[in-house]
Structure to design on (199 residues):
């Protein structure tokens, strides 16, 4: 099985975890994905899905979901912390999300905030979601306002959509208030100093 297939399988399980409401923001879904990846890495043998065809195909949604609930209830179980974060809605909270003004100072502001927050609150309490979408716009048909069917690549609006970029830092909920005060006081300095340290 290729790495892409393993990633796809993780995505499959991410999609079956209830989002607890249809209006959740994208960043919240991303941190649930990270908690799920952490649980699967701890629960799966060797931290990966089996590369055997039969073993892979025999895995259903039931096994990881059942194991997750069991782990969330058992402090000694593999992946307990991540499972509890998901099942009891104790997911990490957004501390920082990149803004265009920050890029004028530092090309990697999220990385700077993430590393500083790790030093301040401990590596186990901070997560960083850094992702840039790859590839161009997929070509698909859609209906215009005047009911014509055209290709997405022929649309001026769709063909000029910006590439999705995630650069978000999350903090454990029990550290959230303290971290927000800390960031309010130090964000400008951290981003500026991070640029000086960038090779």
């Amino acid at each position: 099985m290729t790495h892409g297939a393993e990633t796809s399988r993780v995505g499959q399980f991410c999609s079956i975890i209830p989002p607890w409401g249809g209006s959740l923001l994208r960043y919240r879904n991303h941190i649930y994905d990270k908690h799920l990846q952490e649980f699967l890495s701890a629960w799966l043998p060797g931290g990966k899905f089996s590369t055997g065809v039969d073993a892979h195909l025999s895995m259903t949604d039931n096994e990881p979901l059942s194991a997750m609930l069991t782990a969330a209830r058992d402090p000694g179980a593999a992946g307990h912390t991540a499972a509890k974060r998901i099942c009891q809605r104790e997911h990490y909270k957004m501390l920082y999300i990149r803004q265009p003004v920050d890029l004028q100072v530092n090309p990697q502001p999220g990385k700077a905030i993430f590393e500083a927050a790790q030093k301040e609150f401990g590596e186990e309490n901070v997560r960083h979601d850094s992702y840039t979408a790859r590839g161009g716009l997929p070509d698909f048909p859609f209906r215009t306002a005047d009911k014509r069917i055209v290709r997405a690549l022929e649309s001026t609006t769709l063909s000029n959509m910006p590439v999705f970029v995630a650069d978000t830092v999350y903090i454990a909920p029990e550290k959230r208030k303290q971290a927000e005060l800390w960031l309010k006081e130090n964000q400008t300095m951290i981003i500026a100093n991070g640029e000086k340290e960038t090779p």
Notes: The longest strand covers residues 126-132. The two ends are 36 Å apart (CA to CA). The chain has two domains: 3-87, 93-197. The domain at 93-197 is CATH 3.30.70.1370 (Alpha-Beta Plaits).
